[in-house]
Fold this protein.
Amino acid sequence: MLLVIMAIEDIFKALGDPTRLRIARLLGAMELAVGELAQVLGQSQPRVSRHVGILCDAGLAERRREGSWVFLRQSESGSAVVDAVQQLLALAESEEPDFAALCEADRRKLAAIREAREAAAETYFARHAGEWDELRALHSADAEVERHLAEALAAAPLGALLDIGTGTGRMAELFAPRAERIVALDKNLEMLRVARAKLQHLPAASVELVQGDFAALPFADASFDTVILHQVLHFAADPAPALSEAARVLRGGGRIAIVDFASHDREELRTRHQHVRLGFSDRQMADLLAAAGFAAHDPLALEGGKLVVKIWTATRRPEPASVTTTPALETAR
């Protein structure tokens, strides 16, 4: 009980400052870098960092490093208390004109940040449009692939979904309405910033972007119900560790969906698009999935181009229950 009282006391102390109230209100809308917060608040980054530290220590916010940037989001632990704080701040904004004016000004600056993110994403797309158009011309239309993937995963709820190698964030955007929450992971920082621009209209509490490697996922065992690898596995010199990691973070009975190319001989993709593997045969994929602890389903082939797109799905086999043996009782003499 004493620990609970101390925790609540820390929360109210953390909220006892106008700047921290504004930060807490902003984090209810979207994840922000410390530099972006400083831009909105019109304060120095070191000063904002001190305020952020107090909010994090009180459990109201969480830091996450992404390269040289530090991002802040509303804390997910103790969510009932965090939700109550957001409700209180919303009430304060409706009742206090001065606080409402500050929040409205902050939101205008937040809108400018959203626009800057979108502009940066458009610049990235323009720079790489030729490469992507060249690759898209070789296979079925994206909309067709997405439709079949959605159908392949329609049989059961998605629950907590991990999008490995999220790239532009398209898979996270596509499945956000059906998932309880989504974690979008990518190793490339520039791609994460593109994904952040695409996903920033979604509720901050429902989507998380994380930098990480598919061969060493930064998540606890059995954290997700669904894993998607969309046009990712052909970048792996050895796909086995990536699939083993996917199995590790999936709960028993959880599902994996892999969208990639069937085996092909287009060697130019190695140099033009950095593909390490020239697709996969059904036999290769079945063996990889079985070795990682999955029960594979029948694959689907989309043959609308020079490259055949395959959708492989599988279910995570439950871990075998541990058997506890009881030593036999000695016969009474």
The radius of gyration is 24 Å. The CA atoms of residues 183 and 298 lie 27 Å apart. The chain is about 45% helix and 20% strand. The chain has two domains: 2-113, 139-316.
